[in-house]
Design goal:
Pfam families: UDPG_MGDP_dh, UDPG_MGDP_dh_C, UDPG_MGDP_dh_N. By secondary structure, the protein is an alpha/beta fold. 46% of the residues lie in helices and 14% in strands. It has 3 domains: 200 residues, 3-Layer(aba) Sandwich (Rossmann fold); 88 residues, Orthogonal Bundle (N-(1-d-carboxylethyl)-l-norvaline Dehydrogenase, domain 2); 136 residues, NAD(P)-binding Rossmann-like Domain (Rossmann fold, 3-Layer(aba) Sandwich), CATH 3.40.50. α1 packs across α3, α5 packs parallel to α6 and α9 packs across α12. It is globular and about 75 Å long. The model has no long low-confidence stretch (mean pLDDT 97). It binds nicotinamide-adenine-dinucleotide.
Length: 439
Amino acid sequence: MKITVVGTGYVGLVSGTCLAEVGNDVLCLDVDPEKIRILEEGGIPIYEPGLQDMVRRNVAAGRLHFTTDIEKAVQHGTVQFIAVGTPPDEDGSADLQYVLGAARNIGRLMTDYKVVVDKSTVPVGTGAKVHAAIADELQKRGVNTPYSVVSNPEFLKEGAAVEDFMRPDRIVVGAEDEQAIHLMRALYAPFQRNHERLIVTDIKSAELTKYAANAMLATRISFMNELANLAEVLGADIEMVRQGIGSDPRIGYHFLYPGCGYGGSCFPKDVKALIKTAQDDADISLKVLTAVEEANDAQKHVLTGKIKSRFGDLKGKHFALWGLAFKPNTDDMREAPSRELIADLFAAGATVSAYDPVAMHETQRIFGDESRLKYADSPMGALEGADALVIVTEWKEFRSPDFEAIKATLKNPVIFDGRNLYDPKFVRNSGIDYFAIGR
Ligand code: NAD
């Protein structure tokens, strides 16, 4: 099948590459010439495990191409995936300018039947707006080329995106005409060979499903974070509580980890956007989600509170930071809790040495030549001259460190662990002052 993917970010590049992997002829379009240059030179502009090899393999096989040429991209695919960003607007609603811009480009240039598939996370009602934008462009040209609009929200997780796309739990397709449903079934058949995972819904339900999924996951995290804060005051251990409730199959173990707040490009913005849609379009105040967001905003400062209670005045203090990305296996720094922590430490007069296996480059891009932030080339390197260690991202390589070496290198043997990586007894027995979340 001939497929165009508009946007080569985390979702677009992974989707396009995986669709090429199963034999499709895929052209990926981006308006950012730098991204396309990197891709054309055999690199990838993001970090995502397994992606680089898959891109190279499919480029070499002639199934995957990249372009900045909009007209060529519109002509190429019968299926046109829109996978551009939908960042939060100032009022928290999803900014649809990139999605509608892409839809207009398709309407302006298409000359034959297209299935326009929205993969970006968009509020309920966007399918109709995409439809109207294309209709408007066709009308301006005085042509009546047929097209279908489909909502196909993406559920991949950064850090495991290739695996998630190749072996999805479910594929949600919101479509309202048979031709489009037929095409989408054919397109996704290779990804669900052992059993059917494709759920066909109306367009609005598909759009809402994506927000509902992220909102539920964010709710579980904020719920656990609040209970962790309570457990700490009451003298209970949230990790024991987590195991105690996770064993109930109605609850399950997933997404029950307390920590220093959720971040990333999806949960914060999608929770905000859903609250806003409910308010503006339905006059409904989503009380649970409003609290989820409030709890998360507060949780991003929990480590700062612990550091201040332990050290008092932070002026002139220097902290080692392990982990910058919002979660392991990605270089994505969008809404990462580390950013709030670093800002808090700077505001209190402290400085930071950070180490992250892949996100330091992106952090440097964000913070520029900020002199209060130094980068170390190893976890232990970050500890030199530091008053304490703060852990923000649960990278595997932080899970079993040499505590004796940590103690010998830090000025004070203190660890603030925002991801509950260690057994508190073990660490404390090593002579380290250990502060975790909810235990
Ligand atoms: P991203 O910011 O990494 O990538 C978006 C890309 O689109 C950028 O490269 C940008 O240059 C490009 N772009 C913008 N306008 C364009 C246009 N008119 N034509 C061509 N290219 C254009 O974003 P992302 O993280 O891949 O997310 C994309 C969408 O998918 C968002 O709506 C997001 O909420 C959703 N989503 C993201 C994830 C995730 O884990 N990142 C998971 C599921 C869904």
